[in-house]
Prior knowledge:
Helix content is about 45%, strand content about 15%. It is α/β, with parallel strands linked by helices. Helix 5 links the parallel strand 3 (about 95-100) and strand 4.
Amino acid sequence: MQTPPRTFWRARLVVVCLLVGLCEQAQAADYTGPLFDAHMHYNVEAQQPHPIPDVLGRMQRSGVRAVLANSRPNDGTRALTEARAQTQAAGVAVVPLVRLYRNRDDYGSWFQDPTIYEMVQAELARGTAAGAYRGIGEFHLYDSANARGKVAQQLMALADQRDLVVLAHVDDAAIDLLMAATPSAGKTTRLIWAHTGIGGASVERVRGLLVRYPALMGELSYRPGLTCASAQGGTVLCPDWRALVLEYPDRFLLGSDTWINPRWQYYEAQMQEYRSWLGDLPPVVARKVAWENGARMFGLPVQP
Ligand SMILES: [Zn+2]
């Protein structure tokens, strides 16, 4: 018996609807809630091309409601905290960190330079117009063995004792070495792992570190292998990262990492890219990664 044409077309319509339905599901709407920029530099070379009204405008247009601010040298962070009227008008909370770098030369020697330890202590004692510094960093270790440097070890112990947050651009081996230098052996150390392994530590290794160190947080800028193209041409988390973020929704943060001036030019595009892949996550998880995890770390309101 031949298929009656009407039934045939009805069946085709059902298939098309199903496909369209799936397409709509995959092209989830972008995340529209607040963002916490947990990796923001306002370095000396950014301040002339991007004065404070310019950077605040970029944050405001991006829906960024708080920034973890640090700069080389620390004057940039202090200038942001002193521009209280402007930051409040823009609706941006500034959470200051002490950076370990007075200049570019310090990147390669801070971990064994006692004058850096003195500078950090002086900055902590001085504080900012937005109150006490809440942590130290970002610092870099291009060779994980330098985590054994005397000043690196002293700063980790200091952070642990004073409940300061540490923002560290290091590899996975250095995470273990830095945590070992703390009085709590990393059990209470509030370390934000900048880029969560920019060298590509495996998802399994990242999971193992999250389990081992309960207060370790992963900041996701520049993380290789994080995002994949969706079938519809959008950006989504790659399956292994999506699974990890769903497993540990309280342990991840986003950042702009404005380490060079072009990052300021692309600030809004970067935040839009985050909104795109956040939209593919369950809304509760997206909001945690986008805002609540950072807000919780620094006592900011869950509803900014
Ligand atoms: Zn950075």
